[in-house]
Amino acid sequence: MKCHDPCGACCIAPEITSALPNMPDGKPAGVRCVNLDSENRCMEYEKRPKVCREFNP
User: Fold this and answer.
1) Per-residue pLDDT, 41
2) Cα–Cα–Cα angle for 43, 20, 26, nearest 5°?
3) Quick check: 29 and 14 in contact, CB under 8 A?
4) Distance between CA atoms of 16 and 2, rounded to whole angstroms?
5) Is there a contact between 23 and 12 (Cβ–Cβ < 8 Å)?
6) Residue 50 carries which DSSP code?
7) Domain range list for the chain
8) Mind listing the pLDDT tens digit of every residue in the chain (57 residues)?
């Protein structure tokens, strides 16, 4: 799949139960990650956890 820039779906759609940068308790599905900037780009891209790197839409 080719991603559309900016999208942010991988930072909004999944439930993440592991700690994220600036979100120590993870996040529920459908909740916008606090690490997205105003253009839906990850501000902690290099520090993102495995679940974010391996998200498959």
Assistant:
1) 87
2) 130
3) yes
4) 23
5) no
6) H
7) 1-57
8) 566 767 788 888 889 998 888 999 999 999 999 999 998 888 888 888 888 888 877
Q: How far apart are the first and last CA of the chain?
A: 8
DSSP secondary structure letters along 19-35: -BTTBTT-B-TTPPPTT
Q: Cα separation of 49 and 8, whole Å? A: 15
Q: pTM of the full predicted structure?
A: 0.77
Residue with tokens 């974010």: 52
- pLDDT computed for residue 2 by the predictor: 66
For 26: left if phi > 0, alpha if psi spans -120 to 50, otherwise beta; the answer is left
